[in-house]
Every structure is written in structure tokens, then in C-alpha cells.
Design goal:
Shape: globular
Radius of gyration: 19 Å
Number of helices: 4
Low-confidence stretches: 210-214
Order of helices and strands: EEEHEEEEHHEHE
Distance between the termini: 66 Å
Mean pLDDT: 87
Strand content: 15-25%
Length: about 210
């Protein structure tokens, strides 16, 4: 069955270090997804501090020139390429920050990332590998799902990563009120995850001071 993609497609572009004034909105012709690729109509994009680092030229990983920024987004599958089996048109999906990192320790080959060395989600139509996509639960909106790939996954990994992770009764201390800290607070306060562990939030300006006890 032939599929007609929306045209033209509008995307934001920027070169790292050019700042927010360097963002430009351009139109271009869409391309059909290739082998193992999926075309996604982007419905929502989430902006985090990472995007500011890219704009300022301070991001720790490589950023290609004239990149489509933003790593976090969610949308609906509109077309699939040959060999795609896990998703189909109409599915609601979000994408992982590192599309090639499936599991295990992070390797150099896993480092290409959306909105950095790869084009990101600040576009009307994103073409992504099937393996990078995660289905959106029915109870989440596109806007809610778009906030998960970077900050929420980072918080979850911090809480459950190396070792046994936190356990009921542990106290979790977060730094400031950024995206990762706020997701950590929500996760540990949820009775379905960590049985509502106590949470403390520290203002980074006062990290050198003695914390109160009790």
C-alpha cells in the first residue's frame, strides 16, 4: 500500500554555539523511511537543559552542523520501511535519546544521539530506526510522553542502576529542581515504585553547608 507523507515538512535547524537566535525554521521535502526505519508525525516536543547546552556549544557529546535539535518528542507512526515489525501506522510512540543503545554498558558505538550527532525531534516528521521506538501507554498524552526519554530515564537509572538500587525506607536526596530531580521525586513518592521513600531536596547554592539531621 502506498503512503503519502505530508509535504512540505517544517523543521528547526541550528548549529551548536549559535544560541537561540541561531534557530531557523525551514521547509523541505520528506523522505520515505528506509529499511528498518519509521516515519513519525511529531505531536509534542519536550525541552530540557540539554537543549540549552547544545545551543550554547557546551554539550559534552558531538553535535553535527545544522542539526535538527531536541532529543525528546512523541508522535504517531505514519509510515514504515521494509522489515519493520514492531510498529505500524497509527501507533503512538516516543524515541530513546540514544537510538543505537539497546542494553548493557554504554559503548562508543552507542553514542550517536538525537538532537546531537543525529537529527532530533523539533520537526513535523521524524525518520527513526524501529529499534529506537517505545510505545506510549494509553493513559499518557503526547505532551506527557515527550518528557520521558531524557530526564525521566536518567532519574530512573540513577535510582535503579548499578547495584540493588534504592529500597523501601531509604532516603533519596536530589539536587535542585531540574527535570531529573523532579522526576526522581515523583518516582520515589509513587507507591507503585519505591513505596514512597522519604525525599530531600537540596538547593545547589548551599551544597557546602552542613545538612540538618533528624
Amino acid at each position: 500500500m502506498s503512503v503519502t507523507l505530508p509535504r512540505p515538512v517544517r523543521s528547526y535547524h541550528v548549529t551548536s554555539g549559535d544560541g537561540i537566535d541561531g534557530l531557523s525554521l525551514r521547509s523541505h521535502e520528506p523522505r520515505m523511511p528506509g529499511i528498518g526505519e519509521v516515519a513519525i508525525a511529531v505531536h509534542a516536543v519536550s525541552l530540557s537543559f540539554r537543549e540549552l547546552l547544545v545551543l550554547r556549544g557546551q554539550y559534552v557529546l558531538p553535535v553535527k552542523p545544522d542539526v535538527i535539535p531536541a532529543s525528546d518528542g512523541a508522535g504517531q507512526v505514519v509510515a514504515v520501511g521494509p522489515g519493520v515489525e514492531r510498529v505500524r501506522p497509527g501507533d503512538r510512540v516516543t524515541a530513546t535519546l540514544f537510538p543505537h543503545w539497546r542494553d548493557g554498558p554504554l559503548q562508543p558505538s552507542d553514542l550517536p544521539q538525537l538532537g546531537g550527532s543525529l537529527d532530533g525531534m523539533l520537526t513535523e516528521l521524524a525518520i527513526l530506526p524501529e529499534q529506537a521506538l517505545v510505545p506510549i501507554p494509553e493513559h499518557l498524552s503526547y505532551a506527557e510522553a515527550a518528557t520521558l526519554p531524557c530526564a525521566a530515564v536518567t532519574a530512573w537509572n540513577a535510582l535503579t542502576g548499578d547495584g540493588p538500587g534504592i529500597q523501601p525506607g531509604h532516603t533519596v536526596l536530589t539536587t535542585g529542581s531540574g527535570g531529573v530531580s523532579l522526576f526522581a521525586v515523583q518516582l520515589v513518592r509513587c507507591p507503585l515504585t519505591f513505596a514512597g521513600c522519604p525525599v530531600g531536596v537540596v538547593d545547589p547554592r548551599f551544597l557546602g553547608e552542613r545538612l540538618p539531621t533528624g
